[in-house]
Amino acid sequence: MSRKPIIAGNWKMNKTVKEAHEFVEAVKDKVPSPDIVDSVVAAPFVALDRIVADAKGSNLKIAAENVHFEESGAYTGEVSPVMLQDLGVDYVIIGHSERRAYFAETDDTVNKKVLAALAHHLLPIFCVGESLDEREGGRWQAVIKNQVTKAFAGVPADQAPSVVVAYEPIWAIGTGKSATAEIAEEVCHFIRETIAGLYGKDAAEKVRIQYGGSVKPANIKDFLAQADIDGGLVGGASLQPESFLALLDGAKA
Ligand code: 13P
């Protein structure tokens, strides 16, 4: 089964609307065809309206970095899947470890958000990953299996392949210290087996799994060469147009 690579930049809390606009203008005509690679940038909410319009007609897809699971209501400060769908956003990152660590995101809210995103035709980029403690304590399998199983609860089999899973070991995020390609592959393979346990092998073979954590143009090819790694979720190295385009180049061959 050949799966199409997906490279997503996660800008996190970076870039004003003007800076986001300038980035998209700089890259949009150079983004490769979606026949070869799916190319995505995830931006703060305030920039989404502008850059969805900027990217229209190009090969660049736009993601939000979070979403609430309710359609509307008394949830001060939150943004609903209806609003993102209305803007024309394509993807949404769900359950990033920074949201789990700093904003009380739980496996339960992650699951609700995955279901809400799918219900509103937003493609989830759902993040999993173990801490250094969990890895060194030999608990990574249990942690990953639990995160994956809970996130997919209630997702119908025909929709499961639309979910992109991003494996981001917490110890490799923003540290400059990426996982080795072998470690990343071992975990991504384990994620695919876990999904096969839930939906069967055929569905699991269709799910795209990204690696994230200090990915850069210099190492993206090493990760993509692995059997179960289908893309990258990239923080720091996605902030500059040249670097983002170099990552997309790395996914071409
Ligand atoms: P870095 O690429 O900066 O390590 O960030 C990874 C990440 O968290 C992407 O979501």
Q: Estimate the global geometry from the Cα principal axes.
A: globular
What strand order characterises the main sheet?
1-2-3-4-5-6-7-8
Name the average pLDDT: 97
Order of helices and strands: EHEHEHEHHEHHEHHEHEH
Question: With helices defined by DSSP (H or I, 4 residues minimum), what is the helix count?
Answer: 11
Rg, alpha carbons: 17 Å
The proportion of strand residues reads 15-25%
What molecules are bound to this protein? 1,3-dihydroxyacetonephosphate
Taking the sheet with the most strands, its summary is: 8 strands, parallel, barrel
Structural class of the secondary structure composition? Answer: alpha/beta
From the N-terminal CA to the C-terminal CA, the straight-line distance is 17 Å
The tally of beta strands, per DSSP, is 8
Uncertain spans, ≥5 residues at pLDDT below 50? none
Helix content: 40-55%
Keywords for this entry:
single chain; alpha/beta; eight-stranded parallel β-barrel; binds 1,3-dihydroxyacetonephosphate
Any overview of this molecule?
By secondary structure, the protein is an alpha/beta fold. Helices cover 42% and strands 15% of the residues. It contains eleven helices and eight strands. It has helices spanning 17-27, 45-55, 81-87, 97-102, 107-119, 132-136, 140-151, 181-199, 201-206, 220-224, 241-250; strands at 6-10, 38-43, 60-64, 91-94, 123-128, 164-167, 209-212, 231-234. An eight-stranded parallel beta barrel has the order 1-2-3-4-5-6-7-8, surrounded by six helices. Strand 3 (60-64), helix 3 and strand 4 form a beta-alpha-beta unit. Helix 1 packs parallel to helix 2, helix 1 crosses helix 11 (241-250) and helix 7 (140-151) crosses helix 8 (181-199). The longest helix has 19 residues, at 181-199. The chain is globular. It starts with 5 loop residues before the first strand and ends with a helix. The structure holds 1,3-dihydroxyacetonephosphate.
